[in-house]
Design brief:
This protein has 425 residues and is of the alpha/beta class. Helices cover 44% and strands 13% of the residues. Bound molecules: adenosine-5'-triphosphate (ATP). One of its GO terms (biological process) is response to stress.
Amino acid sequence: MKGCGDLYEHAKAYLSHRCARWARALRAESAPASSGRDRFLLSMGDNEEVSDVFRGATVWWHSVPASAGRHRGSDGRDDVDDGGRTYRLVFHRRHRELVVDSYLPHVCREGRAVMVAGRQRKLFTNAGGGWCSMWRHVVFEHPSTFDTLAMDPAKKREIMADLDAFRNGKEYYARIGKAWKRGYLLHGPPGTGKSSMIAAMANYLDYDIYDIELTSVATNKDLRRMFIETRGKSIIVIEDIDCSLDLTGKRSKKKKRPKAPTTEGEHSSARDATASKVTLSGLLNFIDGLWSACGGERVIVLTTNHVERLDPAMVRRGRMDKHIEMSYCCFEAFKVLARNYLAVDAHPVFDDVRVLLREIDITTADVAELLTPKRANDGDGGGGGVDSCLTGLVAALQKKAKAKAKTGGASRSDVVVQAKEEIQD
Ligand SMILES: Nc1ncnc2c1ncn2[C@@H]1O[C@H](COP(=O)(O)OP(=O)(O)OP(=O)(O)O)[C@@H](O)[C@H]1O
């Protein structure tokens, strides 16, 4: 049946959902006052039977344990099963067309919806296990969404439209003969929201995340194996790709002296990178070699603070299809933060902030921190908390503007600084 590849799983989810609804209805009838919880999971036990009515036709689902033998239909195929338990569907022969053409697709649709609604997304990682190319996971619960992400709304809409086109593009990719995957390169200074963007993308698409610590992957072969073990509907992330390994030029086998690491993080990455035998060509194969087409529906995201350090082969279009610059905080991004952190859309200092942000490079993380209420009731959308956060931000921006003026001459924001000083005098 078209589009019902996981019929057993869909039927199982559908039946659990039906059972739960019936149980709720029964409980409401017998003890309405005690119906506090409305979410619980039920499933059919072995040898149980559940009936269902669809457009006036009654059907019966039987749950058959593995040991009871698998029923082989006239077409030589098993009943709906996962290699263990089987569901056998019984109905009157006059309903055959209705069941095959309408009821089973309905079960698939509903079952899939139940699975999506109840699915816990996962964050997989290979980090922390030494030379380990095994995935371990935790439940993914990052709260970042495109609503909370501070950036230019037009850019945000463009990215969301791009993700929609990808998610709905199965047939398109098949038609043009391209693997169903898309590469995003997120670049920009630290603290501008690259990780937040990845979490927002995962929440928007409802995908799992595979976060690869490249320095913990021993060889190209391990990297390929890890890719094969990832599932569809996932985002595969390699953060800080520029300091993960010395990938520049390894493809051409030139001996390049690695850049001297500057931070402790870069020191340890450099140590691990020396030990890892993953090469640029291994990584390029991982991103879009033949193996990378297996399974489909994968987004690959690379992040870097130094896009200029990356090998052009790695970031060329077709491999990294969309380059997204996460830049310093602009006024539009500030407005998102002000709404989310302080519940304000307008304030007398907004004009000052607009002028200052045009001149001053400040990360979104820094602005977010300055807008974080410092006392319990500050963030309730009114009162002194809002004023003190916003004036604190303006003061910080003015300080930066002054420092910039000292080193680089006057700027438009000096006008604001001067005006403020005049008022204070
Ligand atoms: N664009 C943004 N929108 C909302 N919050 C942001 C944004 N940028 C930064 N932040 C805030 O700053 C924190 C750090 O941001 P994030 O980790 O996403 O930045 P990053 O660019 O990935 O940094 P790094 O390059 O150091 O990994 C986030 O937890 C969030 O609170």
